[in-house]
């Protein structure tokens, strides 16, 4: 890693969330100036030395543009060392039960948002000799039942990241993907609450078809062991400070295991996912 440098600055989107907040604290602790992009003001982040909150809704082009102008003015032409596209949401549920607005929000935050931010902040990355870090998920490589929407959004983000890595190479702007596994953050509870509301608003007959699956997946998630958000933050810091960052980092043991799953034959992989989610034998139970 490079030694801490008080002149370097980074932008972290989705900074009010568990991983975002932990990342802001960790980077500020290494002496970097951190612009914490938040949709709503967060005084606790502003209280951290070296952290400055910036209003930023990644789904709103005007908000992204305003944030870029404000940070550019504050940097006085010195640019940014890194842009960390961390903002994200999780939409869960079977494909048949997903409402169009749910899918739209999934891609608006997880895919279109990072694109808008990247486009707006690339001039500052060029100025600062910086790097682009996109926070993905293991489901980008191995899609999981009832998480098809988030899997697809992260897979698309990784595809765009791979293309951008080649496109931005002439300016020496590395593009890095970080895949955190399951972390102990509010995002999963938020996703579960949103899914419950969506199911309540759905066709009851269709929901009944999936009820055994929904209950099994909920039980599997309740038993899931989540790592502290700081686990992901440490890896993001490593990617931010490395002299020559790798194209891909995994954070957490489960994220590393996905690399093994991704290379298995599709049918073998499906059987393992069915077992992991407790979906064995539910075809008859669901009356399909």
Keywords:
11 helices; Rossmann fold; 12% strand; disordered N terminus; 288 residues; 7-stranded parallel β-sheet; alpha/beta
Please, could you describe this protein's structure?
The chain has 288 residues and is of the alpha/beta class. The chain has a single domain, classed as Rossmann fold (3-Layer(aba) Sandwich). Helix content is 52%, strand content 12%. The protein is built from eleven helices and seven strands. The chain has helices at 18-29, 43-46, 61-75, 100-128, 148-167, 187-200, 204-223, 229-241, 253-261, 266-276, 282-285; strands spanning 9-12, 33-38, 51-55, 82-85, 131-135, 175-180, 248-251. The protein has a seven-stranded parallel beta sheet, sandwiched between helices. Strand 2, helix 2 and strand 3 form a beta-alpha-beta unit. The longest helix is centred in the middle third of the chain and has 29 residues, at 100-128. The radius of gyration is 20 Å and the shape is globular. The chain starts with 8 loop residues before the first strand and ends with a helix. The model is unreliable at 1-6 and 284-288 (pLDDT under 50).
């Amino acid at each position: 890693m490079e030694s801490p440098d008080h002149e370097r600055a980074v932008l972290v989107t989705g900074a009010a969330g568990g991983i975002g907040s932990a990342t802001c604290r960790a980077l500020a602790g290494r002496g970097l100036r951190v612009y914490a992009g938040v949709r709503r003001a967060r005084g606790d982040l502003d209280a951290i030395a070296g952290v400055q909150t910036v209003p930023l809704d990644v789904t709103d082009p005007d908000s992204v543009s305003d944030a870029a102008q404000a940070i550019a003015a504050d940097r006085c032409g010195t640019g940014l060392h890194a842009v960390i596209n961390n903002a994200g949401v999780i939409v869960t549920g079977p494909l048949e039960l997903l409402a169009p607005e749910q899918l739209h929000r999934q891609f608006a935050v997880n895919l279109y948002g990072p694109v808008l931010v990247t486009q707006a902040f690339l001039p500052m990355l060029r100025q600062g000799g910086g790097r682009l870090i996109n926070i993905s998920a293991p489901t980008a490589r191995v899609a999981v039942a009832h998480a098809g929407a988030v899997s697809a959004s992260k897979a698309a983000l990784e595809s765009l990241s791979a293309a951008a890595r080649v496109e931005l190479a002439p300016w020496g702007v590395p593009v890095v993907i970080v895949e955190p596994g399951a972390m102990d953050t509010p995002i999963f509870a938020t996703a579960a609450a949103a899914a419950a509301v969506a199911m309540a608003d759905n066709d009851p007959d269709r929901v009944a078809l999936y009820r055994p699956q929904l209950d099994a997946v909920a039980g599997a998630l309740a038993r899931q062991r989540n790592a502290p958000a700081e686990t992901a933050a440490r890896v993001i810091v490593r990617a931010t400070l490395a002299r020559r960052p790798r194209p891909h980092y995994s954070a957490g043991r489960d994220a590393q295991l996905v690399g093994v799953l991704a290379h298995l034959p599709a049918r073998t992989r499906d059987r393992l996912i069915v077992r992991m989610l407790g979906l064995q034998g539910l075809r008859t139970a669901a009356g399909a």
